[in-house]
């Protein structure tokens, strides 16, 4: 819709030629409306001008009787009345209205009317005054002056016609007086005529400016009315208006429809009663309605005020804005405002808010809502001096389920975990999902420490029960870390950090347990952080080195190879145990570069040994998750010249818990290179005969704990060692007994049929020089034999 709305504040100029109709204005459309207003004003005053001409004619005829022949008076009177009647009826017959349009020609043609009147009235000074005595001449002059004044004011809208009339008649009077020798009177009449012409132009300009402003305001009002009508007809909003008593006045059809009432029935009803609905009789008003009543009582403007209304038994949300109205005398007359139905917008906002604060998979509060609730809980507890608790939960063995059975099963498992957690919560608790397999519980009142621990134990027991999903019976567990505030943290970040440290402690304790935060955990965490920083630069600083432990034939004791063992001697912290820094390297994602360095260094050293001496290198499951690890092995073999069959990679059973990440595929590619594989610590993890049948291992390593216990005669350990050796023989695999430290342990593994032995009984891990000397000495001994 294109609406032209001139601004009333812009400057509107009126030049004289345009005012007189001698040329069109700059804004032709606007000036055509102004010219129509000029013609309309002339039409309204046409009878006045006609009466003025008739009165002046009769007065003049009366004054000149007896001095001018009667036929001349009658002829002149008939002429002037004829012209006046023609001009008057022409003005009355015009079809132009105040809000119509007129052309420049319409205004210009009025000049002929002024000329006709000027010619007929100029007869009076030219003919009649020359025959009349001085007293009569003065009377005639006064009559003409009054006529000119009447014309200057009554005919001012038609400035061209008025100026022609005044100019022609004034000129005739000045010429007559000048010829009669009355120079002073001639000058006076000239000045009088000029003044009237100026007044006429000024008055005409003022009328034009007023009309221009009216046109602009009228167009603005039409625009506003059109917009309001369109707003009422097409929008989901409506206008409302009240009187001083807050009763509805001029109720629109849309407002009535929105209220579910008839417009006539709505008229005069109290506005607040309409909004209150059924609650008007009970007095049970909403907070929004009370706020609205207070605003209207105080006669204050308001906007974006939302309140709940009931229309036809359905709850709707309305948003109101209004301003008080005042009369011309400043007296308050009521309110006028606009109302919108925002039910759908509110529902959408609620949905968006829920999506932002609730987990889409489980329906539990997400990390954002948990954090907001924790901050609110802590603030409320600080007011009344209460205690609160935060539990961090991490599912045990969930990753194995997700990797082996797929994400759809994992997602459904998380759903069942969430249902069990929700059933354990009461009004004082809030549980939510932080992400992945991490959950959290907020306890608003933690004054009873025993109750918190009981809740943690119930959570562990509930989540540890079996799950039935698509014919799969799944078992997982959960580890719980507990932090109680404000003791363990006065901010949300500190409390979550403390619970996380407690959870880390629970995992170290074997999982499936809960642990509470203790201050020394922060000390350990800081130690871990500092150690991680040092670990990041350990290889570059030359702080790491390899030691080599001999692997011998179980029957003959002949040297078969070495296992490369990583050692770290920090310049700042001294010797650090592998059990401490290897898990740290895996958590910090440093195991890949460190492992690559170990592999290159071990291959480079093994290339200097006799060709039948093998080197064994431990490989982390995290390294096998990266397909580029095959390139790392290939590069190490190619750069050092070590044959692939002399390299044995040792992996633990945890590798097979990452099948979904491609670890077994990487193993297959390594086997294709000719590299040997050894299954380390068999029987201590997630043992499965399926792993052995699917992967071409060259040997199985028996963990030291079984060797030690079997040597002591423990039946379970003896049975396991026998079974592992028998299994390896059936699969054509070698067996290596780890941790053999005594003669008795050596004889035991020999009797059981173990093929290789490794342990302190045959040699501790050796520095590189000693290992190289041992390898070469054995080679020289063999050569001498």
Q: Mean pLDDT, nearest integer? A: 82
Number of strands: 20
- In whole angstroms, the N-to-C terminal distance is 109 Å
Shape: elongated
Strands of the widest sheet, in order across it, are 12-13-15-16-17-18-19-20
Largest sheet, if any? 8 strands, mixed, barrel
Relative strand content: 15-25%
Determine the fraction of residues in helical runs and give it as a percent range. 55-70%
Low-pLDDT ranges: 1-10
What structural category do the secondary elements indicate?
Answer: alpha/beta
- Rounded to an integer, what's the Rg over CA atoms? 54 Å
- Please count the helical segments: 32
Précis, in short:
The protein is α/β, with parallel strands linked by helices and 785 residues long. It is 56% helix and 17% strand.
